[in-house]
């Protein structure tokens, strides 16, 4: 698989991640590494089991996730580092929210495709 093909697969997987989050689709587990770490903008950190439990309980419900910028892609062996910005609308504990987030995502290429290994989000204040 050449570099542009690998990158195309990665971008497809990133779109899937956003779609699965937005649709509360349990298939999200298929693209998460078992060692995944989510760092949320409120300081909350989740591992794979925490994420699955909270996701299935619909603790956070996303109405929309729009990528507004892809600012950096770096590759090292079977790892890719992505910096991007997204705009999200959703509900957390019955409170609606809208925010812009800067994300740093680390993806690992495995036999079955790309898996999210780590993600850190930071809120971009207006």
Q: Could you explain how this protein is built, in words?
A:
This protein has 126 residues and is of the alpha+beta class. It has one domain: Nuclear Transport Factor 2, Chain: A. It has 2 helices and 6 strands, in the order αββαββββ. It has a 6-stranded mixed beta sheet, covered by helices on one side. The longest helix is centred in the N-terminal third of the chain and has 21 residues. The protein starts with a helix and ends with a strand. Pfam families: DUF4440 (PF14534). It comes from Chryseobacterium shigense. This is DUF4440 domain-containing protein. InterPro entries: DUF4440, NTF2-like_dom_sf.
Low-pLDDT runs of 5+ residues are none
CATH hierarchy class name: Alpha Beta
Biggest sheet overview: 6 strands, mixed
Q: Name the CATH architecture.
A: Roll
Number of helices: 2
Total beta strands: 6
Query: What strand order characterises the main sheet?
Result: 2-1-6-5-4-3
**Could you say how many structural domains there are in total?**
1
What's the CATH topology label? Answer: Nuclear Transport Factor 2, Chain: A
Helical percentage: 10-25%
Percent range for β-strand residues: over 45%
SSE pattern, N- to C-terminal: HEEHEEEE
Categorize the overall geometry.
globular
Give the radius of gyration. Answer: 14 Å
Ends distance: 41 Å
Structural class: alpha+beta
Task: Give the integer mean of the pLDDT values.
Answer: 93
Pfam family, one: DUF4440
Protein name: DUF4440 domain-containing protein
Organism: Chryseobacterium shigense
InterPro entries: DUF4440 (IPR027843), NTF2-like_dom_sf (IPR032710)
């Amino acid at each position: 698989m050449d570099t542009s093909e690998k990158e195309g697969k990665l971008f497809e997987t990133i779109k899937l991640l956003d779609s699965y989050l937005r649709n509360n689709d349990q298939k999200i587990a298929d693209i998460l590494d078992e060692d995944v770490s989510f760092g949320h903008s409120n300081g909350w950190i989740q591992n794979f089991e925490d994420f699955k439990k909270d996701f299935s309980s619909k603790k956070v419900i996303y109405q929309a996730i729009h990528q507004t910028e892809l600012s950096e892609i770096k590759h090292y062996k079977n790892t890719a580092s992505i910096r991007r910005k997204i705009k999200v609308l959703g509900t957390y504990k019955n409170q609606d929210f809208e925010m812009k987030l800067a994300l740093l995502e680390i993806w690992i290429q495995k036999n079955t495709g790309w898996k999210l290994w780590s993600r850190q989000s930071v809120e971009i204040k207006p």
